[in-house]
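Shift notes (night). Ran Sugar ABC transporter permease while the centrifuge was going.
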Amino acid sequence: MTASTDTGLARARRGLAPSGPGRPAPNRASKLSSQTTRTYFWLILPSVLLLLLINGYPLIYAAIQATHNGSLIDAGDFVGFANFTDVLGSAAFWKAVQFTIVFTIVGVFGSWAVGLGLALLLRTKIPAGGTFKVLLLLPWVVPIVVSSTSWNWLVASPGSPTSALFKAFGLGTPLFLADPTLAAVTVCLFKVWVSFPFMMMMSAGALTSVDNTVYEAASMDGATRWQQFTGITLPLTARSTYISWILMTIFCVNDFPTIYLLTGGGPVDATTSLVVYAYRKVFQDFQTGPGVAIAFLMTLTLVVISAALYRQIRKSSVE
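Came back to this:
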């Protein structure tokens, strides 16, 4: 990228920036008076108390269960942090962590890449664009039970259409849900399939704020399509991108039905994520303490990841 092109991209971005060199900074809202602050406080207090009551009690009760060795009907004896240490020392737990990380990375960035690409495509004039948009939303609109049943029909058995297609091309008859590696790949692809419409809508909403004149100015300065994408599209949609990453990370880590309805966590725990592992501990093994401990560790991890991405949201600004 030449120096003149860099200057042109920067000038084009500044054309839409809220402030920049030679532009007056926007007026800052003055601080609320103490009386107004008190009024807002008393108006918000009932809602805050209601949220604390609804969410606080289950959280406290879950913390009690995580420090006891009880069951669903009995709290049991107090064991302190023994459940956490047992979980962290379990090989099955770390195997679930490994799959959860892979599942989340593929789900977040795979669906984002597909969604952003389709959002950029929909900005162009294509035949039957309205119908195309509706069809692209179907994987997200259709209930997950229906989607998982359809994917089971497509790949579950040797006689399924996908297996028959592989066999027709002389590639054997792969067992997509019986082989551990293929099952993990299938589940990750299924997650991208059901999630890309959400990322497409987030990206499309962000792209509407980018004026076409910015691209025209960049083209006049000699910027290529790729330079416009990396120098204009990505920076101007960064805030929306980080928000969608936060939401999709939470969706992926907490996604139970996508995995359980397709593979049940198998074969040989190859697709067992943390939320599936916690479910098994509580509702199949009746070990409430370790299961809730896993949930607390998941929550802590999500808080850390969300906080890190939120800092990036605050930092992302157009220069």
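The chain has 14 helices and no strands. The chain has one domain: 90-315.
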